What we know:
- The structure is a single chain.
- This protein is an alpha+beta fold and 185 residues long.
- Helices cover 39% and strands 31% of the residues.
- It contains three helices and seven strands; from the N terminus they run ββααβββββα.
- The protein has helices spanning 28-48, 61-88, 161-183; strands at residues 2-6, 9-22, 94-99, 103-108, 119-124, 134-146, 149-156.
- The protein has a six-stranded antiparallel beta barrel with strand order 2-3-4-7-6-5.
- Strand 3 and strand 4 form a beta hairpin.
- Helix 1 runs parallel beside helix 3 (161-183).
- The longest helix has 28 residues, at 61-88.
- The chain is globular.
- It starts with a strand and ends with a helix.
- 20% of the residues are buried.
Amino acid sequence: MSESSSATGVSLQASLPFAWCVEQQASATVLDLRRHGNIAVLRALAVIESTGPEREHDLPDGVQKSLDHLESKLDLVLLLVAELTRAGTSLPSEKPVTLFSDHIVWIDKDDNAPMAGQHILLSLYPSLRLPQPLQLSATVSNVDMQPGVSHISARFDELDDELGEWLTRTIFRYHRRALQARRQP
């Protein structure tokens, strides 16, 4: 994964499992369930990908060893659950995407591209450590079709402050990691 900065803000550039489909008008209940699911995925990713517990207080060595041991067990359980989930589900094919906090741009080699103005539902898997998709409603803002490839941009619909904040945090976390990786020889 890499990152970039532009006039529209920090972004995440990666090849991720990604799919879209045309979306009809979703009910308020479906939108609310989807919103809560997306926040749960982004929160869980933040916890799973954290560098470990922040040490505000010095803990005795025995307590710290116990916490490290417990964290290792939880990591193993998460890994096994992720493997079971992936085994029962086929992920969509990976596509090059650039994810911003308010829109997404992707490259599709299929001839089946959405049309500008079309409402779509995006399923995006930001990390295979947690094989649960973000499901984001969007409106296609631009389609640039060239022979064999399409560049598509879509603006997210229905982003409230909380979901927007979690999406921004996630993108920024990947941005910061990419910067750190560049600095290391």
